[in-house]
């Protein structure tokens, strides 16, 4: 259940859970849903249930078999904090992440309420970054919920950015990713929305990563913002990470120890 990732800010994906349900406007054109249905049509056993939430316990220990240090996005095809995922299963996933201490794990959720409610029942390893997805000002409560979590790095994935977020507070936040929606039906993103967030990051000294402009054909739009790419990473990133080998402009930050 692990694959090399084309996502610009990670290396690998690890999916001990697959499938999800939609809970907010950012889910409307979910890439994971499209992919799951495609894999189901191809006869992939793990996607026999399509996008219905399914635990994949035989995938839990995969990171322990990868000996080279990697940046790993957890559950790119699901949400670890979905209400249908038992707490005991979440705890098992965190135990694996603790044991695989040579990796760095990145977790994203839209379910900040459950994250906050269960955070004290989880043993948080230093190699786990925890983030929430925020698509508009209406969902800033997820940021407040994230602030209560004792993760080594707390980060925001503001993708797809669907509206202006002028009142974004970055207190206790260690990284911000911004991106436009891509694929069929992609909704447009106003450049001024992106610049407002970037300026807030610059003012508060928070690393800023601009993932994409998006669009139906995202490769045509590129990743540059005001004449450059923005590939900043949290200061806790491991200097030896292989992210330096990925396309983009990551290596200057790694060389500086950022």
Description:
The protein is α/β, with parallel strands linked by helices and 258 residues long. It has helices at 31-41, 87-99, 112-118, 141-147, 191-204, 218-221, 251-255; strands at residues 2-4, 12-14, 17-18, 54-55, 71-74, 104-109, 128-133, 153-158, 175-179, 208-212. Strand 1 (2-4) and strand 2 (12-14) form a beta hairpin. The longest helix has 14 residues, at 191-204.
Descriptors for this entry?
single chain; about 260 residues; alpha/beta; TIM Barrel; 8-stranded mixed sheet; two-stranded antiparallel ribbon; 7 helices; about 25% helix
Give the gist of this structure.
With 258 residues, the protein is α/β, with parallel strands linked by helices. 24% of the residues lie in helices and 16% in strands. The two termini are 30 Å apart.
Topology:
Layout: E1 2-4, E2 12-14, E3 17-18, H1 31-41, E4 54-55, E5 71-74, H2 87-99, E6 104-109, H3 112-118, E7 128-133, H4 141-147, E8 153-158, E9 175-179, H5 191-204, E10 208-212, H6 218-221, H7 251-255
Parallel strand pairs: 2-5, 5-6, 6-7, 7-8, 8-9, 9-10
Antiparallel strand pairs: 1-2, 3-4
Total domains: 1
**Number of H/I helices:** 7
* Lateral arrangement of strands in the main beta sheet: 1-2-5-6-7-8-9-10
What name does the CATH topology carry? TIM Barrel
Please give the CATH class. Answer: Alpha Beta
Which blocks of ≥5 consecutive residues have pLDDT under 50?
Answer: 238-258
Specify Rg, calculated over alpha carbons: 17 Å
Q: How far do the termini sit from each other? A: 30 Å
Q: Roughly what percent helix?
A: 10-25%
Strand fraction equals 15-25%
Number of strands: 10
């Amino acid at each position: 259940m692990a694959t090399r990732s084309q996502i610009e800010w990670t290396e690998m994906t690890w999916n001990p859970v697959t499938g999800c349900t939609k809970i907010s406007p950012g889910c409307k054109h979910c890439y994971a849903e499209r992919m799951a249905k495609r894999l189901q049509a191809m006869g992939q056993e793990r996607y026999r249930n399509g996008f219905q939430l399914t635990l994949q316990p035989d995938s839990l220990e995969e990171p322990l078999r990868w000996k080279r240090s990697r940046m790993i996005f957890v559950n790119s095809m699901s949400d670890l904090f979905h209400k249908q995922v038992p707490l005991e299963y979440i705890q098992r996933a965190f135990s694996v992440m603790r044991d695989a201490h040579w990796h760095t794990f990145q977790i994203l959720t839209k379910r900040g309420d459950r994250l906050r409610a269960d955070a004290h029942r989880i043993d948080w390893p230093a190699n786990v970054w925890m983030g929430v997805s925020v698509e508009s000002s209406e969902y800033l409560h997820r940021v407040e919920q994230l602030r209560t979590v004792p993760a080594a790095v707390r980060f925001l994935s503001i993708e797809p950015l669907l509206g202006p977020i002028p009142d974004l507070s970055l207190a206790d936040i260690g990284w911000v990713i911004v991106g436009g929606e891509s694929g069929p039906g992609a909704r447009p993103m106003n450049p001024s929305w992106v610049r407002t967030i970037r300026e807030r990051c610059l003012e508060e000294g928070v690393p800023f990563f601009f993932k994409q402009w998006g669009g139906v054909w995202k490769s045509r739009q590129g990743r540059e913002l005001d004449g450059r790419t923005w590939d900043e990473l949290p200061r806790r990133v491991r200097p030896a990470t292989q992210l330096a080998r990925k396309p983009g402009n990551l290596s200057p930050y790694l060389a500086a120890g950022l």
